[in-house]
Amino acid sequence: MNKRYLILAILAVAVGAGILFMPETDRDKEMKPEQLLIAIDDPSRFLTTDLITDRLVKNDPSLLLIDVRTAEQFKEFSVPGSVNIPLDSLLTTSSIGIMSNKDIDKVFCSNSELTADQAWILAKRQGIETIFVMQGGVNKWFDDIVKVEEPSPTEPSEAIALYRFRKAASQHFFGTPEIKSVVQPLPKKSVTVHKAPAGATSGGGC
Fold first, then answer.
1. Do residues 12 and 32 touch, judged by C-beta distance below 8 A?
2. Distance from CA of residue 54 to its chain's centroid?
3. What is the distance between the alpha carbons of residues 107 and 131, in angstroms, rounded to a whole number?
4. Could you tell me the sign of the dihedral formed by the alpha carbons of 59, 60, 64, 69, in that order?
5. Quick one: which of 175, 117, 111, 118 has its CA closest to 143?
6. I want to staple 74 with a disulfide (CB 3.0 to 4.6 A). Which of 15, 22, 61, 84 is the partner?
7. What average pLDDT does the segment 172-179 reach?
8. Is 53's pLDDT higher than 70?
9. What average pLDDT score do residues 43-58 get?
10. Residue 157: CB atoms within 10 Å
């Protein structure tokens, strides 16, 4: 187990203890700590920004991108199509109701991965299935999609194809004089959440 996962293991134990003091949880459904540690060590729980972007562009109804930052951070910049459920509201009855749909992939994101990892651990501990973390977080998504840089013509064809995909996605989300399409909102959920504006183009943070 590398340093990253050792830190997450310690975090998992701390979070597991913290859940005892959080309201509106069903402890009978909680995942056992040893099972949680195995799940933490599984790299398949991370989804890349490109994979998530592709699903957002296609308006995939089986994807729910959950931004677990504060409402203030979400308002400053957020990935179009994401919804805001701050970390301290993650275990409310209404939030758990949203995340309990096994047919929807719930992907947590934060500026980097730290807060999203905490959200993943909290949700996993509660027995919620089909949950993931966006690799690199909102910062990486901003760098990859909004600040996409054109590669040299001598770069491999794969790099050029990736650039074209990211450039087209950026135009889809934020529009250009040639392309006016924007992301359609996700289906309404059972709680009030902040939807990401389709035209915001400033970002950053850690």
1. no
2. 14
3. 6
4. negative
5. 111
6. 84
7. 66
8. yes
9. 94
10. 7
* Secondary structure of 112-141 in HEC code, one letter for each residue: CCHHHHHHHHHHHHCCCCCEEEECCHHHHH
Give yes or no for a contact between 151 and 160, defined as CB atoms under 8 angstroms apart: yes
**Position 26, amino acid:** D
The CATH architecture of the domain made up of 3-138+185-195 is 3-Layer(aba) Sandwich (3.40)
The secondary element (H helix, E strand) that includes residue 176 is none
Q: CA-to-CA distance for 144 and 40, rounded, in angstroms?
A: 26
Cα 73 to Cα 58, 116, 189: the distances in Å are 26, 14, 21
Give the torsion sign (CA, 62, 65, 68, 72): negative
Contact (Cβ atoms closer than 8 angstroms) between residue 206 and residue 143: no
Distances (CA, A) of 62 to 18, 85, 99, 174: 31, 18, 12, 23
Question: 32-36, 54-58, 121-125, 156-160: lowest mean pLDDT where?
Answer: 32-36
pLDDT of 178? 39
Q: What is the average per-residue pLDDT within 86-97?
A: 90
Does residue 39 surpass a pLDDT of 90? no
Place of tokens 């959200």: 119
